[in-house]
Specification:
CATH topology of the largest domain: FAD/NAD(P)-binding domain
Mean pLDDT: 86
Helix content: 25-40%
Strand content: 5-15%
Distance between the termini: 35 Å
Number of strands: 5
CATH architecture of the largest domain: 3-Layer(bba) Sandwich
Largest sheet: 3 strands, antiparallel
Structural class: alpha+beta
Shape: elongated
Number of domains: 2
Low-confidence stretches: 1-5
Order of helices and strands: EEEHHHEHE
Strand order of the largest sheet: 1-2-3
Number of helices: 4
CATH class of the largest domain: Alpha Beta
């Protein structure tokens, strides 16, 4: 997978900044040296973004029926699915089928889940309801589901407040 956004443009006006996508073999913190499969890199400041893989936490059926949100391709597939749900709901004559198409559940109250819930609400309660006037705002449901005690649990308490619904 390659980055689709030229990250370096964000730092054009600051000190020289080098971006590398590589597999890290060794980090020597004292010598400020990073060894990859291709080269050894000396650094002043090191920012590691190790990436991730989707985790379905052993929930039966989750991998087959859920949409991971890790890559740009994942996001595009998810967006197409949401648009398809609205298109089908707008044409559905059966109330149960329409309701099922307009219920969206985001599982995981970490930063991705919370951010996505907000972005989805903005998409739905903004342009989608304008594009589909036959769908009432009361018919759409967005749920954010978290298995732990609170949202954004991994964040430092000073940076996490109780989220409020804005839609």
């Amino acid at each position: 997978m390659r980055s689709r956004f030229p990250c370096g443009v964000s730092f054009e006006s600051s000190r020289p900044c080098v971006f590398r996508r590589a597999e890290v073999r060794r980090i020597d913190l004292e010598a400020r040296r990073l060894t990859t499969e291709e080269a050894t890199i000396e650094y002043d400041f090191l920012v590691l973004a190790p990436g991730s893989v989707p985790n379905f936490f052993g929930v039966d059926g989750a991998e087959e029926h859920a949409f991971p949100l890790r890559t740009m391709d994942d996001a595009i597939s998810l967006r197409h699915h949401i648009l398809d749900c609205f298109e089908r709901a707008a044409q559905a004559e059966d109330a149960k089928a329409r309701t099922a198409l307009l219920r969206f559940a985001i599982v995981g109250g970490g930063h991705t889940g919370v951010e996505y819930a907000g972005a989805l609400a903005e998409l739905i309660y903004g342009p989608l309801l304008e594009d589909y006037p036959e769908i009432s705002r009361d018919e759409v449901e967005v749920s954010l589901i978290e298995g732990e005690e609170r949202l954004l649990r991994a964040w430092h308490p000073a940076f996490r407040s109780t989220p409020t619904l804005a839609w």
